[in-house]
Amino acid sequence: MRKILIKQIPIGPFQVLTYLVACPQTRHSVIIDPAGDEDKLLTLIQTEGLRVKYILNTHGHADHVLGNPKLKDVLKIPVCMHEAENSFFSHPEVREKSSRELGLPPPDPADITLKDGDILEAGTLKIRVIHTPGHTPGSVCYYVDGNLFSGDTLFVGTAGRTDLIGGSLDTLIESLEKKLIVLPKETRVWPGHDYGESPTSTIGREMAENPYITDFILS
């Protein structure tokens, strides 16, 4: 596994883990789930000499998209989200309920809609979109060079909540079973929140210790 640049930055009142992921040769990069503190992120981008190509959202919950508008405007880059998520959050009743649930406004429409299996390029990086519904209908993970950016689908030792609008425990378990635990066991997991004993894990460790996998899938 080659080494790529990954910056994990806890941001905002929900302590969302925002990521900068960059090609070490070209410094082309993406930002995953910008959760606010835009000036802090812009300073880090400048300090690291990065050329950000895309804003990638793992899902549309407000705490993960707060930084989208300003970063899109300043960096002149598109916001990307799965097509199912973009459609789901376009419904007025969904937007109203999600706003009440989280106390924050839902996302604006994406500039680029994604499908399962799509590949995004940033320098030499090839970032694969893995559709993992359950937390929300259009939740995705991003897989690049043995690293899985799992949003609120998979945490260290647990998984995303399914009691918010659009959530489904059965669908989430199916996503874990069919999309994530089939990845190489050494795959490093970078979650959307630091809810576990450490801020990262591996698929192998989660298969051994995470009750959403051990109890629901492997038992």
Outline the structure in words.
By secondary structure, this protein is α/β, with parallel strands linked by helices. It has a single domain, classed as Metallo-beta-lactamase, Chain A (4-Layer Sandwich), CATH 3.60.15.10. It has helices spanning 38-47, 62-65, 68-75, 83-88, 92-102, 169-180, 203-209, 211-214, and strands at 5-11, 16-22, 28-32, 51-56, 79-82, 112-114, 119-122, 125-131, 140-144, 147-151, 188-191, 201-202. Strands 1-2-3-4-5-6 form a six-stranded mixed beta sheet. It has a six-stranded mixed beta sheet with strand order 7-8-9-10-11-12. A hairpin with a 5-residue loop joins strand 2 (16-22) and strand 3. The two termini are 31 Å apart.
In short:
The chain has 219 residues and is an alpha/beta fold.
CATH class descriptor: Alpha Beta
Per CATH, the architecture is: 4-Layer Sandwich
Structural class, by secondary structure, is alpha/beta
- How many structural domains does the protein architecture include? 1
**Count of β-strands:** 12
- H-E order: EEEHEHHEHHEEEEEHEEHH
Query: Approximately how much helix is present in the residues?
Result: 25-40%
Relevant terms:
six-stranded mixed beta sheet, Metallo-beta-lactamase, Chain A, 219 residues, 12 strands, globular, 8 helices
